[in-house]
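Task: encode each sequence below as structure tokens.

Item 1
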Amino acid sequence: MTDGAYDIINKAHVVQELQESSLIEEALERFRQRLLMSGVKDDSTVIVVEI
């Protein structure tokens, strides 16, 4: 996660979203929505890898 996203989405948010989502895509969409709603000005990237 880049600093633009990390400032908005902390570790607790990541754990919560991944536990509540049945698909990784759902969690990523929630991360995207949270970033958009925050008004983040910096670029941001979130990558989730399923093992």
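Item 2
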Amino acid sequence: MNWITLNNLEQLKSISDAEGYSVIFKHSTRCPVSMMAKKRFEHDWDAIPEGTSVYFLDLISNREVSNTIAQQFNVYHESPQILLIKNGECIYETSHGEISAEDLAEQIS
């Protein structure tokens, strides 16, 4: 799998309109906890089912997109944070040390 860089609001609209599952990983490049969560997530990447779109948001560089995510999916902003979107709705979100590719995969299965 490869990260899909999320850096504009048009992509967010596409995620909302997509059928099935999409994942958004919100990452702060200034936070060591976020870096650790990202590395752990990438280590277990193979747990995520094939065909799942996994988006990576550098929220420091893309603050407007990050703020829109919080409003659009009705979630409290945190970093790092992972959101599972299904058919335009956030059905699962977690943050910090709770981020796990395996837990995310269980939500998809």
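Check on item 2: The first helix runs from residue 9 to 17. Helices lie at 9-17, 32-43, 63-72, 101-108.
End of task.
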